Amino acid sequence: MDSFTFLDKIINESFNREPYVKKSWWATDLNSCLRGVFYRRKGLPPTSVIPPGRMGIMEVGKIVEGWIVDKVKQSGNLIAEQLRVEAPEYEASGKVDLILDEGGRPILYEIKSTNSFSFKYKIKNKEPQPQHKLQTLFYLWRLRNHGHQDFPEVNFSNLEGRIIYVSRDDLNRLIIPVNYSEEAVKPIVNQLEILNSSWKKDELPPVPEPVIFDEERGKWAINWVCDFCAYHELCAGRDWRAKAEQEVKERNAALETGIKTINI
User: Which of 204, 225, 242 is the last residue of a domain?
Assistant: First the structure.
């Protein structure tokens, strides 16, 4: 084994971790594959392994988050980091990345790293990814309505939420506000009710569509929800990706034909 392969092996093996025992639903489960979330809480072993490249992206995200948290700590404006927020009646919880004191007001921040293509798209449309938005709304929902036992002196009733997107290429940052409303929280409650109903009845939640239209790229693509689910082969079979890729190819061909027809 040469030195390059040896070093690569050390890094890749560092990604192998024992899975957490999942005793509740997590805020990061929102807008993901609910059936996969169900299987994960059941303790079923994954049917697919997350590749090292994707694990590397997750590690970079942690490094970026740590870098921002460190800068905030130095400023003296930190109220809380990695603050656990719970919704016991829905058996759900999560951890807020940051809460800052900005001129006497608490502001909640979620930190997300992203590739340069997605970063540029977000600069253009100023919209967060749906799963990131719901995660942030979950924290706002609980803290605005219930406060936090560890910070009784902080008034969270008008807490504002923001998502910081950080480009992995150059650490450029884009801050997108997340507007809170009771209407915006409804999808959260709906998804948690689906999960809890399935859990109590021991029935599987629905399976997401394998192919969706990617607004960022303007074409059909494999649904990231399925792609990131470690259990999707249980639902759709081992050949689900090949079938989905074929469907993507056919839909994009039809889309391209339609565009050309319009331009003629």
Answer: 204
